[in-house]
Amino acid sequence: MPAGTIIFYSDQVIPGNERLDRRFLEMNKDRPKLAYIPSASDNSRRYYREKCEYYKKYDIEDLLYFDLNKEYDPSLIEELLACDAIHLSGGDPFQFLGSMRKRNFGPVLKKYLADGGILLGISAGAIVLTPSINISHVFYKSRTDQHHAVGLVDFHFLPHWNQRQDRLDAVQKFSVDNQATVYACQDGDGMVIRGGKIELVGDVLRIENGMICQ
Predict the structure, then answer these.
(1) Cα torsion for 10, 11, 14, 19, to the nearest 10°?
(2) In this structure, are residues 125 and 87 in contact, taking their beta carbons and an 8 Å threshold?
(3) What is the β-pairing status of strands 211-213 and 205-208?
(4) Which is nearest to 159 in space by CA: 186, 121, 120, 139?
(5) Partners of residue 35 on adjacent β-strands
(6) Extents of the domains making up the chain
(7) What element of type H or E holds 99?
(8) pTM of the full predicted structure?
(9) Cα dihedral 87→104→97→124 (10° resolution)
(10) Residues 45, 37: Cα–Cα separation, whole Å
């Protein structure tokens, strides 16, 4: 069983997310060093700077920018693996997974987790850590024929459920067709996976083989 921790966020914007932030802060030393992996190249550093500001409220000011796309620099992998937590940004899961595949980055994240690291997956950054990004096809047209993702967990994660509840039938059908468990998560809520145990933070809906489980 991996020694590390995965925290799945639906988003990281509203105040409710502080409950999830506290989970990884409780596991760490004071002022941990974080790595930031964008879902797509952030040439202007707009989104990176936003996250720098976000983490400053926790006195975290050391964020390593690690791009898997245009600015990929494999010489930074050792520094990445030395970080206390890795933030995988929200955005486009199709593009994010494409960059991960291009760099064969799944094994890097698996090693990091096995060595006790903390992964913070935000929306798309959470989806790419599941068995596949197929859950995205319920809402968006597929732009890839390569669907298998990193597979650090055995369930599917559906963020922004508060904006998508009218598609419950489609999500239930997905879980039946794929014989899968889906966790549908509202903004401000999330999940903590550690030591083989799942902690649901907030009102997270579990759908298994078409059935809503309490």
Answers:
(1) 60
(2) yes
(3) antiparallel
(4) 186
(5) 64, 86
(6) 5-158+186-203
(7) helix 93-102
(8) 0.94
(9) -20
(10) 12
Alpha-helical (H) ranges within the chain are 18-26, 46-56, 77-81, 93-102, 106-114, 124-127, 168-177
CATH of domain 5-158+186-203: 3.40.50.880
Judged by DSSP in three states, 5 sits in strand
pLDDT tens digits, residue range 41-95?
999 999 999 999 999 999 998 899 999 999 999 999 999 999 999 999 999 998 9
Question: Which is nearest to 139 in space by CA: 108, 81, 182, 98?
Answer: 182
Burial of 27: CB neighbours in 10 Å, binned 0-12, 13-18, 19+:
middle
The β-bridge partners of 197 are: 194
Residue whose tokens read 């809906």? 205
Q: Do 38 and 48 contact (CB within 8 A), yes or no?
A: yes
Take residue 136 and report the two structure tokens written for it. 């995205």
